[in-house]
Specification:
18% strand
Length: 390
């Protein structure tokens, strides 16, 4: 069936399984007392904000109203007005959108999988965990306590190394420590977890080790350690400076983590610094440990794309619920964009794809033909005319 009679935006929404969506709506009962705007209409409006790049409730309402013809092709009866959007952002639970994200991730992830060198070599599931601060004005978002005169929320995300998308995510206020959110997360036995130095809590790391989870992080500079054994390093990897088995000697830390650990010292040429990588994996090569920690850059790229390409710096509501709804809808948007990017024959950069979609959001053209060949090549292009031909 040809899709040339409906807009690109409508076809993008078609990627989202409506039965899956409706199942989450029924689970949370969010269509009860919906004031004429059901959860799907609310969802379409918030996704329109992300894809169109608009930054206010008025722009969302007017943007949808300006679409040519009726909105039936979007599954929407009418565009919501500004006041209605404000009300439902404050009162409809954000949890339905969080659950929609994870349900969609499970459905779309198989087509996002890539062949990763180190994941394939060690034959284990790799997760990368980090958190990112999203600043807010404390005068407007008085619930988002961070510092004395600053407000913020913090997005904690666990990225699946295969897909480059959050396997788990939670939003907290800016004061919540990274480790507190990490302790609420369960990692499957046999998996690999890569985190930065902020997550070094020896009691938590020992629990990971007890559950057969391999971790790679950075040793804190003030850690009291004793070198137990010097391990051989491969000379062909010049960035590896040393490889040692250690044990913690601090009074409290030795009780929290009584087993042996390993420290691989590597030179980071890009930042001109020496990194001391801490792991409970005692048999893999030092280069594999260093490459695993290097993979942590993926989570930095994810946060960069989320903040630069989607609306997560300016918010259309000031309540905690409204901010969370907008954040989860931005996560759904980046999930769908990644799905399109990985299915396309054309080698898209994520920033180019979202920009082209914004320009053509209500253009009526087949999505899959367009995404494979976005630049139309004319069969008989007109001759080029130069100044000397005039």
């Amino acid at each position: 069936m040809s899709n040339v009679n409906i807009s690109l935006f409508s076809q993008i929404l078609g990627v989202i399984d409506r039965e899956l969506f409706n199942r989450e709506v029924r689970k949370h009962n969010t269509d009860k007392y919906n004031k004429g705007i059901n959860t799907w209409t609310h969802f379409v409006s918030m996704l329109f904000m992300q894809f169109a790049g608009v930054s206010s409730l008025r722009d969302i309402s007017n943007g949808l109203r300006s679409a040519t013809g009726n909105l039936n092709h979007l599954g929407v009866k009418k565009a919501p007005c500004k006041s209605s959007m404000s009300y439902i952002n404050k009162n409809r639970s954000y949890e339905v959108f969080a659950d929609v994200y994870f349900a969609l991730l499970e459905k779309l992830e198989p087509s996002l999988r890539k062949s990763r060198l180190y994941a394939k070599r060690i034959k284990r599931k790799i997760f990368i965990m980090d958190a990112s601060i999203i600043p807010l004005s404390l005068s407007l978002f008085d619930w988002a306590k961070f510092r004395t005169h600053k407000g913020a929320v913090k997005l904690h995300a666990v990225l699946d190394y295969d897909s480059g998308l959050p396997h788990y995510a939670v939003l907290t206020d800016g004061k919540t420590h990274d480790v507190k959110a990490a302790k609420q997360t369960i990692f499957e036995s046999g998996s690999v977890l890569v985190v930065d130095r902020a997550y070094v809590d020896y009691e938590w790391l020992y629990n990971l080790d007890s559950n057969d989870v391999i971790f790679v992080t950075r040793l804190k500079s003030n850690a009291d350690v004793e070198v137990v054994k010097q391990l051989l390093t491969n000379d062909k990897h010049e960035h590896v400076l040393s490889d040692e088995q250690i044990k913690l000697t601090g009074f409290y830390t030795s009780k929290k983590y009584p087993k042996k650990l390993r420290v691989v010292k590597v030179y980071d040429q890009d930042n001109d610094q020496e990194l001391h990588l801490l792991t409970n994996q005692l048999s893999w090569t030092a280069d594999t440990i260093s490459q695993l920690y290097k993979a942590r850059w993926d989570v930095e790229v994810f946060f960069k794309h989320l903040k630069q390409l989607f609306r997560v710096k300016t918010f259309v509501g000031t309540s905690a619920n409204a901010v969370r709804i907008q954040m989860w809808c931005s996560m759904i948007a980046i999930l769908v964009i990644n799905y399109l990017k990985n299915r396309a024959e054309f080698k898209w950069h994520l920033s180019n794809l979202i920009t082209f979609l914004r320009i053509n959001l209500f253009v009526k053209i087949n999505l899959w033909n367009w995404i494979d060949k976005p630049i139309i090549q004319l069969a008989n292009p007109p001759p080029e005319i130069t100044l000397f031909d005039l």
